[in-house]
Amino acid sequence: MRPDDLALLRVPGVPTVSPDGRMAVVAVSRLDLDADTDRSRLWAVPTDGSAPARPLTPGPRDTAPAFSPDGRWLAYLGAEPGEPPQVHLLPTAGGAPRRLTGAPLGAGGPVWSPDSRRLAYTARAPEPGRSGTAPEAPSGAEAPRLITTLKYRLDGVGFLAGRPSSVFVLDLPPDGEDDGAPPPEPRRVTAGAGEDADVAWSPDGAELAFTSARHPRADRDLVRDVYAVPAAGGTPRRLTDGRSDCALPAYDPSGAWIYLTARPDLGPDGLDVVARSATLCRVPAAGGTVETVLDPEDTDRGDDTPGTVLAGGAAHLGVQRRGAVELLRVPLDGGPVETLVDGPFTVRGFAVGGEVVVATVAHDRSAGELIAITPGRRRLITGFGRALGATGRLRRMAERTATAPDGAPVHGWVTVPDGPGPHPVLLSIHGGPYRQCGWSLSEDTQVLVSAGYAVVQCNPRGSSGYGQAHGRAIRGAWGEHDAADVLAFLDAALEDPALDADRVGVMGASYGGYLTTLLTARTTRFAAAVSERALTDPVSFAGSSDIGWYFVDQHLGTDPARLAAQSPLAAAGQITTPTLVVHAEEDWRCPVEQGLRFYVALKRRGVPSELLLFPGEGHGLARSGRPRHRLARLQHLLRWWDRWLPASADAGPGLDELPGEVVDGEPLPMDDDGRGPLTVRATRLG
Length: 686
Fold this sequence. Notes:
Radius of gyration: 25 Å
Number of strands: 39
Distance between the termini: 43 Å
CATH architecture of the domain at 26-138 and 150-310: 7 Propeller
Shape: globular
Helix content: 10-25%
Structural class: alpha+beta
Largest sheet: 8 strands, mixed
CATH topology of the domain at 26-138 and 150-310: Methylamine Dehydrogenase, Chain H
């Protein structure tokens, strides 16, 4: 994959399925490098595979589709260039879409009421005179912000005071109304500073459940509760026990229970979140204690997997396992759990309609395709990745397990270029730390492998997907078991003669950037390093990061000596490895001062180093940054590695001439009889 192949990426989101199960609709995003913008539009996909996917809306930025329960309408978010997303309504029988909202800072994804006559969503309601309101103060001329809380800003969102997230309800326009008439005004049904999210309707449509932090210690812990509020507005009542981090509530059909994702019981101070898995739980709809439905030890939903869908008497949810994200079906009556999708795949989203489950599934050479799962069968129904696959520039990962010095297994992958090698090697460390790398398309990996580098990745202790004990093994001891694990996996990978053990670099972002810098302070084995958006100084991080007020204490501890032992900046005087420091100027998760101070520490000592800054970007630069910034980042990575760790002459041609056999245009190949590398077990949906 070349950097400009970013323009060929097609990334499908979370689908919706019509009530009869015949049609799926999904938003597919792409990068417009020429216009330097993200584009997305909705695609309609017959679930029986009888016809190819077809574009349903023109964009330019259409997302979050949702079929109404009666199947007459499709609600979605649409945004014009430079404008925030608003709720739109499209009749499924044909006709033009209609915009229903004008939220100053944009609306969240629409959620249908059971009677298909109302929509609920969350949106930020800024106070007058702030950015996004009319009249709006000129840039830089807003009134000063008086901060009195610990939770006062959020990476990718901004300052929270004066712009709380609330729940809104919108009535549909009456049938037959002239499209030129103004739509009904939304009703704000919650208020306050609780950062309301994750709205869901009760089966009778009388009330809404949502998550919020409204308890007295909300500014000093990480507890989020489920609340209920009348759909017409009123005083919210708390349903959960004030001890858990709750998200994504959904009523069961009887209305007696609410199923949710939760990290149960965060301890007496409400901060015990290190390597705490978020799993399927439930609470009585009348209120009570959060009960776990699945064991959190091996059913971590993670932060990036889709939410719970209740259908056919079961809860459907994604869980992280050993670098994959599996799709589970959990019967509400307590029957045996079914695994609908497992194997070397990552489930990105799913929906249920009729007797059909439609899932967005990715793997190491695919950003995602839709599959339809029916009793006893599954079918690939899209080919969004054909253009990128047809370049022949995507390579498979090889899975392997190594052994750490203390005998612990270390699971990971190696991706190798074409040709005999030996190839220069890049050790790539993922962020988190309680996250995982694995079976999904990595743009970085594919670009680097196409340039002639073998890429080595693993999930050391501290990662998710291997149980909570595996994640907690580094608590208060960053740079110990995790560092030993990645080096052990690297050494095992280097036993392959196709890899050049004498030419090795190291790179990582966020926590991966942290561990990268720490390793270069301990060894000179690496020819060069790239540290991106990293935590480099725990002391200043505690006061500058949006999560710093609790993160350092919980993950690294409070003892000054132990903090110094875990601090890359404190060890910067021992680093001689040439280092590229990459940072985003508006990163509030790992603030830019972390990168600036580290760069200056290296530069003052004469260590070959460069600082690459991206204006206007936050912590999600590599995933959600401006298209030209994402392109430039990859180009700079190649430039840096070509300078300090050039691919050998026989490792492959240059960036302008990349060979490789053409991969299958359908990234989830299946046999005619339904057997194939995608493992699906679907016995019933009702």
